[in-house]
Amino acid sequence: MSSPTQDEFFMGRALNLAEHTAALASPNPQVGCLLVHAPPGRGKPMIIGEGAHLYANYDHAEIVALKQAASRGFSTQGATAYVTLEPCSHHGRTGPCADALFTAGISRCVVATTDPNPLVSGRGIAKLQAAGIEVTVGVLQQQARDLNEAFAHFIRTRTPFVTLKAALSIDGKLAPPPAHRFPNQPHWLTGPAARHEVQVLRHSADAILTGIGTVLADDPALTDRSNILGPNGEPRRRNLLRVVLDSHLRIPRNSHLVRSATRTDNGSDVLVLTSTSASSARIAELTRKGVDVETIPDHAGRLSLPAVLATLAERNILSVLLESGAHLNGAFLRQNLVDKVVLFYSETELGEQAIPFAHGILSPYHFEQSLHRVTRVLVAPDARVTGYLRDPWE
User: Of 94, 205, 196, 98, which Cα lies nearest the Cα of 149?
Assistant: First the structure.
């Protein structure tokens, strides 16, 4: 394997900065920036400033890096900027970063990927080039695009990016038959390493979505427990939104979800979506317990899944992790509403009578044939298969 080029090395560092903004940058993209200078006669290039964008702090990654360089007494004249996403060219919550970079006197800008918004894509690059700055585009592009796949999908479609996650037996089943399970308790198929990865997925998501069937069968908490995975924890800017589809409001008042609902200025972290015919008294009861309840269109008792996603989009939810049962998995897949799939396979065999992966889907093995950019890795003792049903950038 060839060693990385200098541009790849510094862009890799910028991507690392961006990766650490998971759950802190949404609904903005995750962006990292590095400022590198090679003073005449002083040997190899050195990092003079670096930064990443945090939504609550307003400043974009380029501004954070420029301020750090200034605070450390470094001149940015003639420096190279490494940015994981094309510098913005327009006024939003802040001024254009392209303007800030050429005002700072940089001579070169290396960009991992262009802006996914077709209305502004390429304009930041054009601004820099018009100012006489050399621009290189496409260094570690795929890694940068993977990091912001939810943002790219949302900015193009105005709907959340949906990742279906499932833990399966080696014969492609979700869980044992109901008669073989203890009520209100989850049945663990995978080991600690795979469950750790699920928490990483939850931490990267804005919302987690399930159906009332899963709530009644497992009584899940659906929390982001990544904050207990490391010594420093994994902070979030806003709570993981836990969403339940429950057309008849059967969610038990003593369920984990209802008992743990937390209300902030931005609303509750538990949202129950129900039909327009739901009991107003039951809605009021759940509301008093700290749960947000919204009614959406339904047909013959089935909630409209496009309306579900539209409701979440109104809340600036860019990414949804679908952790549900066979009915909801099948419905999302049949309606072509899933963008990405992450499947964890255990070594356990559950047999023909077990609950299938998704109703209306032959088997996960057949389903995998429709995926592209498929990766398979060992998460001992289990295996993880990741694939896409559509490219969020195209």
Answer: 205
> Which residues, 6+ apart, have CB-to-CB distance to 117 below 8 Å?
155, 156
DSSP 253-309: TTSHHHHT--EETTEESEEEEEETTS-HHHHHHHHHTT-EEEEE-EETTEE-HHHHH
First to last CA, the chain: 29
Residue 232 has pLDDT above 50, yes or no: no
Of 269, 282, 216, nearest to 240 (Cα)? 269
Pair 87, 63: CB distance under 8 Å: no
User: Residue 344: in which H helix or E strand, if any?
Assistant: strand 340-345
CA–CA distance, 64 with 50 (Å, rounded to integer): 7
Distance CA 87, CA 101 (A): 9
pTM (global) more than 0.90: yes
Is 86 among the residues known to form the active site? no
Instruction: State pLDDT tens for residues 15-57.
Output: 999 999 999 999 999 999 999 998 766 668 999 999 999 999 9
Tell me what the mean pLDDT of segment 144-149 comes to: 98
User: How far is the C-alpha of 276 from the C-alpha of 294, rounded, in Å?
Assistant: 9
pLDDT, one tens digit per residue, over 262-287 is: 998 889 999 999 999 999 999 999 99
Distances (CA, A) of 183 to 170, 186, 226, 248, 278: 23, 8, 27, 21, 26
Of 50, 62, 86, 149, which one is the catalytic site residue?
A: 62
Cα separations in angstroms, 363 against 59, 167, 187, 313, 330: 47, 14, 20, 31, 11
Q: Across-strand partners of 272?
A: 244, 293
Average pLDDT over residues 74-87: 97
